[in-house]
Amino acid sequence: MDIDDFMKSTNGPAYEKNEARNGPPLSYVGEKLRYALEHSHDLLHGIESCVPASLPLPDEYLEGAPISAKQDLLKSPAWASFYYQVTAFAALFNMLGVVNSDKDIERLGQMSEKDFKKWLDFIEREGSVLG
Prior knowledge:
By secondary structure, the protein is an all-alpha fold. It has one domain (25-126). Helices cover 55% and strands 0% of the residues. The chain is built from four helices and no strands. It has helices spanning 26-50, 69-92, 102-110, 113-126. α1 runs antiparallel to α2 and α1 (26-50) runs antiparallel to α4. The radius of gyration is 18 Å and the shape is elongated. The two termini are 27 Å apart.
């Protein structure tokens, strides 16, 4: 057995490309993305724990519309935003391979604030914005 069989890319099968760039340091981008993720995580927990399931639809929606204000107008967009932020954060730190499925994203969203920050710390510690 070859050692390369065990040493897989931290980005898994994701697309990779070498690029040169000028602009804000990628560590700065990572810091801001982390803050966005922390707030998105808080938002998910806030929606789940504080918004009633019976939240009425805004007036511009027809009465009897087959949607839920909480699920369709709040939770779904918040989860989509969180999903793309987690993917971007892991990709920025060359750790995309640790987020393999929607279930992984769901698990991250359901973590306590403390555990989620530990996960973010892990990505920053074990990954690199430099490639």
